[in-house]
Amino acid sequence: MYKEFIECSNDGKVKWLGNLNDLKAFMSALFGDVGKWSSPGGGAKSYRNDLISINWYIHKKALIFHDQLGIVLKNKLTDLSVNKISDPDEYNQLNDPEAKRRSTDHLCSVNTCEVGIQTDIEFTQYPNQSGERCASRCNELSTEFEGLKLDLVISESKIDNKIRINGDAINQVQAEFAIIQNQLGEVVQQVDRLVNTNENINTKNAIIITLQKVLLERLMRTMVLSIPLNHYAMG
């Protein structure tokens, strides 16, 4: 999807032919939503996260990679490139048998060290075999190894990003739960106050009823005492 934006020259320079939004989408596809973009000046745009930092110079379309992972990413982009620029002199050197042999030996020694595989055994068993096979195989293994390293780091970055996002969501839920708990506590206090108020009202009502009974008894007694004695005699 993005490889049409990548142009790599044989001198190790990498260009991003797309626009800034394309580059942002590419970095987001690699590392998720982590990382920040900034404008350091000089017509450059900078991307940085905990794992890698790059600069893209808009006018020259040049991509500059920093840190060890940046070199791995650069090699990965080189492999993805569909627009590799080659110098004509390099084609002439490939036609020179001696130069071709030196180049092959160099690739074998370097790439063997990089991937940690002893390919010298292949030369011992097949002394007449061309060094091109070794160079091709070593280069292939080196590319695969670097790609795996980058894929691993990118996967770790995405996992960390998801953990961070989930952690933020969990923290938010915990904060909301704490708010609900506080609100629930306030409601419980209000209910307690209402219950206490009702109990006080019931107590007051009981006292009033008791007083009413006492007053009624006294009233009846007073009425009885106020009736003349001759009233009873006549009866």
Task: Describe the fold and architecture.
By secondary structure, this protein is of the alpha+beta class. The protein has a domain at 1-86: TATA-Binding Protein, CATH 3.30.310. It has seven helices and six strands, in the order ββαββββαααααα. It has helices at 20-31, 67-80, 88-94, 97-115, 120-125, 131-226, 229-234; strands spanning 6-8, 14-16, 36-41, 44-48, 53-57, 62-66. A six-stranded antiparallel β-sheet has the order 1-2-6-5-4-3.
Secondary structure elements and pairings:
Layout: E1 6-8, E2 14-16, H1 20-31, E3 36-41, E4 44-48, E5 53-57, E6 62-66, H2 67-80, H3 88-94, H4 97-115, H5 120-125, H6 131-226, H7 229-234
Antiparallel strand pairs: 1-2, 2-6, 3-4, 4-5, 5-6
Helix pairs in contact: 2-6, 4-6
- The total beta strand count reads 6
Query: Rg, please?
Result: 44 Å
What is the CATH topology assignment of the domain at 1-86?
TATA-Binding Protein
Number of helices: 7
What is the CATH top level name of the domain at 1-86?
Alpha Beta
Alpha-beta classification: alpha+beta
- Estimate the global geometry from the Cα principal axes: rod-shaped
User: Biggest sheet, in brief?
Assistant: 6 strands, antiparallel
Strand numbers in spatial order across the main sheet: 1-2-6-5-4-3
The rounded distance between the terminal residues' Cα atoms is 122 Å
Uncertain runs are 82-97, 99-130
- Residues in helices, as a percent range: 55-70%
- Give me the strand/helix succession: EEHEEEEHHHHHH
Strand content: 5-15%
CATH-derived architecture of the domain at 1-86: 2-Layer Sandwich
